[in-house]
Amino acid sequence: MNFQACTCIAFSPVKPDGIIRTTVSNTDSAPVTAHQKIDAKFMPLIAAGYSDGTVRVFDINKAEMILKMHPHAVAVTAISFSSDGRMVITGGSEGLIAVSSPTTGMTVRVISDHKGAPITNIDVSVFQEQELSVSAPQLWLATSADRRVSVWSADWSKDFCELVDWLTFPAPAFTPDGTVIAKQDQKALYSQLPPSIAKFSPEESDIIVYVGYGMEKCIQFYSLSERKVLRTQALTHWPTCMDLAQSTALVSLGANERVMKLLDYYEGSFQDFVGHSDSINFVKFSPDSKYLLTVSHSEIFIWEVQV
Asked: What Gene3D superfamilies does the database record attribute to this sequence (predicted)?
């Protein structure tokens, strides 16, 4: 029997008309998440990606697995429900993205635009996009380890999905420690470079916030409407993880140096917090932004956030 490890998980939207962020990142050792605020009588479905390429859907209310599908031939590295809950979007270590139905188990679409680089995160917009010139109101994005971000417009009720933007962020031809990167070694070095992470901004509907290995340590704020980076904010460490608060203008970042950084979204002012004994590989705000979950190799901290 092959070893099967759960690599990433996501919660379904609680209600069809209640659009919430449901992405959950994976860590090197185990997936970590924070519960959404939900009705006490109902728990959302959970979709979990595994190292054998399978995705399993669990009904917490019944305490059982209700569906198993196999959209990937390699490990699933990122997963999210669509904002309406109709689809499960998954990314694999080979760079393929699969869109599957959590009710039938059928994979209805395979996207190969990122093929060759592992998918590092998938994010779904919390907004119903009407202001941008896109063909459908639901936006989602995928990021790969080679610093590419694809942005998609979708209407899953009509089986519609269209690429609306493609972002590529440059990086030097050497690792943070100065080692020259040979072209044939790029795939092997993905795990040694700071991860590429992109998320829709809850503060500005057309902004994508990006961190990753590049020419300098910074956060980049990319405008979908103007199709360019509008501003950057310098950082002191290469981020290993990132989350944006839903109710306050805060950004949380973790680093290998065991530092958790809280940054003001608009002003760029920040404060560093040290407490973990190992690299921080996951940060997540609670839905009301009053608490922050941070995770290292063997520690889980819950911070109270006071603004």
From this structure: YVTN repeat-like/Quinoprotein amine dehydrogenase
